[in-house]
Amino acid sequence: MMGSIADKAREGKDKVYKTAQAAKEKTQEISGAARDRASDDTECAKKKTSETAHLAQSGSEHTKGFLQQTGEKVMGVAQGAADSVKNTLGVGNDEAEEHHTGTTTYRHND
Q1: Are the C-beta atoms of 106 and 87 separated by less than 8 Å?
Q2: Nearest to 78, CA basis, from 66, 68, 70, 88
Q3: Which of 22, 45, 92, 97: disulfide with 86, CB 3.0–4.6 Å?
Q4: How far, in Å, are 38, 42, 43, 47, 65 from residue 52 at the CA level?
Q5: Domain residue ranges of the chain, discontinuous segments joined by +
């Protein structure tokens, strides 16, 4: 009877060992797949980030040029308006006697 209890205990121990070994192998398999997936996702994210940075930089350069042109135009319009106001008030540049804006001619009386 002692032999059969020891044999059953050994069989139980072997079953537990085999089950634990199978669980360990399955866990390693799942872990490896998850690691591979994470690596793939990281590579994909790096590519997307690089593409986005490149697009942002080119868009920024385009916007910079557009804003510079717009700023120059606004400055020109503002300077023209300031000159018109100065000439209207008689405090404009005295070097020129006439100042033409469109179809209107302003004359300075010195």
Answers
A1: yes
A2: 70
A3: 92
A4: 21, 15, 14, 9, 20
A5: 2-107
The residues, any chain, with a CB within 8 Å of residue 27's CB and separated by 6 or more, are: none
- CA torsion, ordered 79, 81, 83, 85, to nearest 10 deg: -150
Check whether 23 has a pLDDT greater than 90.
Answer: yes
Identify any residues that bridge with 101 across adjacent strands, giving them in sequence order: 104
Token digits for 70? 């717009």
Kindly write down the DSSP assignment for every residue of 58-70, as one continuous string.
HHHHHHHHHHHHH
- Rounded-to-integer distance, Cα 92 and Cα 99, Å: 10
DSSP code for 98: E
Q: 46-82 pLDDT, tens per residue?
A: 898 888 888 888 877 778 888 888 888 988 888 888 8
Q: 105 forms bridges with which residues in the sheet? A: 100
